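Q: What would this chain look like folded?
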Amino acid sequence: MMKKLIGTGVLALLSIISFAAHISGGEMFYKYIGPGANGTLRYEITLRLFRDCDAGGTNVATMPTSVIIGLFENLTNGAYSTVVPINVSRTRMDRLSLDNPSPCIINAPRVCYDVGYFTFTRDLARNEFGYTIAYQTCCRIDNISNTIANGNSESGSPGATYVARIPGSSTLGATDVNSSPVFALSDASLVCRGNNLTLDFSATDPDGDELTYEFCSAYGSGTKGNATESAPSSPAQYNNLSYQAGYSGASPLGSNVSINGSTGIISGIAPTGGNIRPNGVSYFVVNVCITERRNGNVISTHRKDFILKVTACQIADADLPINAVTCDGLSYTFSNLSNSSLIRTYYWDFGVPGSTPSTDPSPTFVFPTPGDYTVKLVINRNGDCSDSATTTVGVYPGFNTDFEIVAGCVDVPVKFIDKTVSQHGTVNSWKWDFGDLSTTTDISSQQNPDYKYGTSGTRNVMLISGNDKGCTDTLYQTFELPDKPVVQLGFRDTLICSIDTLQLRMNGPGTYTWSPNYMISDLTVAEPLVSPDVTTTYIVDLDYLGCKAQDSVKVNVVDFVTLYAGNDTTICLTDDLTLKPETDALYFLWTPAGTLDRDNVKNPVATPVAAITTYQVIGSIGKCSATDEVTVFGFPYPIVNAGQDHVICTDSLVLLTGTHNADRFSWSPASTLLNSNTLTPTAFPATTTEYYLTAQYLTGCLKPVTDTALVTVIPPVPAFAGNDTAIVVGQPLLLNATGGDIYEWDPPLGLSNTRIFNPIANISSDQTYSVKVITNEGCYAYDTMSVKVFRTAPDIFVPNAFSPNGDGHNDIFRAYPVGIAQFNYFRVYNRWGQLVFSTSTPSAGWDGKINGKQQSTGTFVWQADGVDYTGKKVFRKGTAVLVK
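A: My prediction, written as structure tokens:
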């Protein structure tokens, strides 16, 4: 996992540059071939470079004819000697190609690589820490899919370093020698996007050493900034590449591709994304590290760096995982690793006698019991491009990764204890990442490792564990690493009586040492007994897993208890009071307990109900105690009554009647009261008002008490008798008053009923009626309406002229319906026939303006329409003159 980036250097600007973006990968390996001159060891050293046969274009060079390889002597503390540059000519070049792909492959690309060998021999003196051999190139192919452009590369993509390390006597001993592993030459593999892939990154070792394989981060170009052949930079400056999200050195092809740690075979599903070029190709950097062990000890790490081409081809084949396993149940969902459109049918045999084969593309099968099953897939059965594959499916439920963290502190190793559970097989692999973001070496493959952190803080630890059945699981745990352990004291400072014994308390793991050795039962237990006769501070030193911390407890010693319950006091009955004794006591007992919220605390809350209550308290420190008491005198609150609430009409008065038994009183608000200094003031509020009567004793309970009387004011009665109107002789008129609950009309002349809101009037001459409108609360108001009686037939009268000059006379041009029960409209048109005014309200009229603009003198046409009280239609029209 990449955790930190090494900064890039400054690019060298050269006038003539040959880019090295043609190099697709490389490997540096060596072979011990016998003694050299003067007691030296002779090695044959080879750099193997891979170049895409089809690479071409501007500034893309051919396979180099010579290279400069750097030799470094490894020194103490990770230092290196000055580089020894060695100019090596190309000794051989081979070609790897896949020229005739199957007809069952759609869009099959050409796969071809030139392989250049640069071999030389060198006599090296046996030394303690060995040697490092390296070759650097500035530039890889542009737009690699799984890395971020970094390092000193002129092409904008990261460069590469191919390196081998020869171990020294500190690793091999005084007489032993070593030859490095050599990866198999098998890179002409066809990789189709989203399809199954199998890549052989296995190696052979001339010495027969044990080899294990894993993905690891590829190197950039160090400080090399251009394609000119030059000596490589020091190994101390080699930088890991930075990877795109979803990829890493440990997962260069994504989560669906893995490497077999024992065989070096890479398998899984090829990536589906990445930077896909117009020709359908995407490139991925893959680097495999081989750990070389001899007699169980790691002696070296060998690397191969290769740029993998992934294309848009499709392979019609049956591809299954080499060894599938399910570890969380008995069911497994199968799928073909090839997604070719040439695949038309599927036939699955699950290897369970009596089970029904499936023709689904991705079936789920529940196995009867744990164990190994041989599953077979046939595609396009009995047809063209038919293929079959078998795999062994291990069904081993009950695997669960777990671990415990025994945390120490900064600079003291933290212990990590594996607690993985495996119901089948044996747990045999562990990959720890200790979450130390300051380094890339915070990893381990031990079962129960230790790790020392340099700083405190939150750490997120990961464990991937596996068993020999192929089960793996991942667990993350977060813990807080302290700078030093926390001394968890049960209490810090306390108080005892000189005749008492006290038990000190410590919580948490570790060993403890107490001091001073004065009146203490044991200096090395978590909870010793102490009985000092004078105030003493006991210091405890904690040692937890090598982490040390110190704290102290001060034991104050007294010979007697000081206790003063407090001054006697006065309260109003039903109030509560917090008792506050002055004391150094630690424990308390109060009586009587019936009117206390708690009787065993220093400051209980008392709610006395009697006129006199005496509370006694016993305060104690261990075996020492003292007693005192305090008396609480209770006085009742005054009794206050502001009287009943009232409802009055607007502009009315009301008499308030209050009572109390206190020494003084007051009313508020006083601004709408007459005689507010008496218990019976007169109120005259304009709106609904609450009046407060407040009374207070001058001795005893001094708190004032308030009561209220609400005076609700009824708003003015909105009496309305109706609009003035006009009728013709013999026309009955329906009156319609509003605004209240009770109505009284006057005079009764011609009215059908004077006690309802809508009597019928039958009159033969002009008449004005008055109505008294009364609410249910008794509030009232008057209104009048006038009726003009015409001795004509029902009609609509309209004047022939009007003068809207604002003098208050004849300013509005309106119709006057007489005897009209339904007034439909009154309309006014200008001389061009345009409508300038319209209404259906008899009292409305035109003010002589159009769109707010006063019209000049002229003639206007009007129309009026209605229905008289007998049901006869009345229509009138005419002209009128607007005059100034």
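Residues 1-20, 151-156 have pLDDT under 50 and may be disordered.
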